[in-house]
Amino acid sequence: MTALLDKASRPRRILVAIGNVTEARTLLPLVARLKDRAEFHVFLSGESEREEFDSRVGELEGVHLLRSPGPTTENAKGQFDPYDGTNDHRLHDNIARLLDWCREALAEIKPDVIVSGSDRDFRSRVAALKCAQDAGIPIYLVPCSFPAFEISLLERRPGEANTIEADSWIRRKYPQHCVQEASGRWVSFYRRTAYPALDALGLVGGKPWVYGTQWNSTVLAQSQLVADQLIGAGLPARRVKIVGAMEFDDFADSRRDRQRWQADLRSRFPEGLRDKPLIAWSLPQYAEHGMCSLQKANEISAEVKAILERSALPVLVSLHPKMAPEAHSWIWDRSESIALEHRPLRDWIAVADACLVPAYSSIGAWSAALAIPALIYDFLALDDIIFDPLESVHVSKSLAALDRELSAIAEQGEGFRAWQAQARDKAAYAGVVDGMALERIADALGIANATQQAPITLDASAL
Questions:
Q1: Would you state the pLDDT for residue 419?
Q2: Biggest distance spanned by C-alpha atoms of the chain
Q3: CA–CA distance, 372 with 370 (Å, rounded to integer)
Q4: 21-37 burial, b for 16+ CB within 10 Å, e for fewer?
Q5: What b-and-e string marks burial along 350-387, b requiring 16 or more CB atoms within 10 Å of the CB?
Q6: Which is it for the CA torsion 23, 25, 30, 31, positive or negative?
């Protein structure tokens, strides 16, 4: 009874497990806005962005930082070339140590809820989520980008590391982890040499090709569109709550400031371009995510640039956080119609008349929620299905198709007006932009209105 009273009287304790910079840029603002209502602990499971992680968490006064000790699963990934399985014992030992550490950390913190951006990546977070499930701690997933589906995930597994034999023990024991391509090749979700360690430690579960199925987690979906897609792919409907997304709240602010942004952004272009439809162009981040070479990504950008310049439309370029401006400056240097906008796209996207988006990007979802026509160019044949239900999102798989679509925008004729009407009709289905997503997320996590936060005295180094 005393334990129950203590739990009821103290602030809600939430452990946020972050694995990459995209998640950091979504989940840490969530922590910043809710930290006066609950006690937050942040578990940083990725090492590749250590400096940025530390600086961002350091700005959050009163938020406790946890970092897993020793080699993480991410550090261990490089130990498996060639993929012959000879070093599996190292992965087993690393994850076993992480499991011990996570059990101690959870026992010390006693979180009421675990929040994470993903349930299926191969970082040390996999140990934290396993321990949380074993301890009966509810896990909530907050998608920090559009969830990837089987067809696009297969594009990331082209090599020998994930290729398995038709009669592989992995397929026999974990059939939901294995997919057969049209070519006949069988593919495992994780690299095949990792499965002995994951199996021995009880870390293989769910159908990881579907976001949210790996653990008994609840997915806080950003829209009915995402919820329908996940449920259709196999996520139980009872484990989905539609709450909106934090960036949608930012878009509500952007909409209110639209007139000011209009004047500011259009002034970047010659007078003859200022009355034409403004295009927000999100450059493909394929090279930065290892999906193709930088040369191939630049070839795609050069082809798109040529079409844009022929269309004589004002274009503002937005870069992914991992993209270095100097590596892409050839796109906007010495161009009257194309300019780089350094400020985050979420601040000014509401000003755009259309968005030009590479396949496998969440910007298409932003556009759809804001009733902005979106044009996706998919020259790598990623065939992402997420936007199939949205007539306002057009997909071009060839330069000729892209040219036709941009010409329709430039002409501002009946076709483009019909496109805009479609965007307005399906906007609410793609995401509710009402400024209340934060409150719906807080409610889902069981966070009441402002609560006096207890001091945090935990010393992570002692765990």
A1: 94
A2: 74
A3: 5
A4: bbbbbbbbbbbeebbeb
A5: bbbbbbbbbbbbbbbbbbbbbbbbbbbbbbbebbbebb
A6: positive
Residues of the chain below pLDDT 70: 1-9, 46-54, 70-89, 122-123, 448-463
Query: In this predicted structure, what is the pLDDT of residue 337?
Result: 94
Per the CB < 8 A criterion, the answer to whether 12 and 113 are in contact is yes
CA atoms within 13 A on the CB side of 352: 31
| DSSP states along 66-93 | EE--S--HHHHGGGG-S-SSTTHHHHHH
Say if residues 372 and 364 touch (Cβ distance below 8 Å). Answer: no
Please give the structure tokens belonging to residue 317.
């370029």
Task: State the DSSP string of 414-448.
Answer: HHHHHHHHHHHHHHHHH---SS-HHHHHHHHTT--
Which residues, listed in sequence order, are joined to residue 31 by a DSSP beta bridge?
none
CA distance 314 to 118: 37
| pLDDT single digits (tens) 367-419 | 999 999 999 998 888 777 778 888 889 999 999 999 999 999 999 999 999 99
Question: What 3-state DSSP class applies to 136?
Answer: coil
pLDDT at 227: 94
Indicate the burial class of 406 (C-beta count within 10 angstroms; 0-12, 13-18, 19 or more): buried
Record the tokens describing residue 311, joined without a space: 């269309």
Task: Please enumerate in sequence order all residues whose Cβ is within 8 A of that of 11, keeping only pairs 6 or more positions apart, or say none.
Answer: 37, 38, 39, 451, 452, 453, 454
List residues bridging with 220 in a β-sheet.
241
- 234 neighbors 213 (Cβ within 8 angstroms): yes
Strand 279-282, strand 240-242: pairing: unpaired
Q: What global pTM score does this model have? A: 0.80
Say if CB 350 and CB 261 are below 8 A apart. yes
Q: Got the DSSP string for 147-173?
A: PP-HHHHHHT--SGGGEE-TT-HHHHH
DSSP H or E run through 141: strand 139-141
Burial category of 229 from C-beta neighbours within 10 Å (exposed 0-12, middle 13-18, buried 19 and up):
buried
CB 42 within 8 A of CB 63: yes
Q: How far apart are CA 294 and CA 285, in angstroms?
A: 9
**Count of CB atoms within 10 A of residue 311's CB?**
21
Q: How far is CA 411 from CA 277, 312, 399, in A?
A: 9, 10, 18
For the chain, the first-to-last Cα distance in angstroms comes to 28
| Contact assessment for residue 62 and residue 453, using Cβ atoms and an 8 Å cutoff | yes
Fill in the DSSP letter of residue 207.
Answer: -
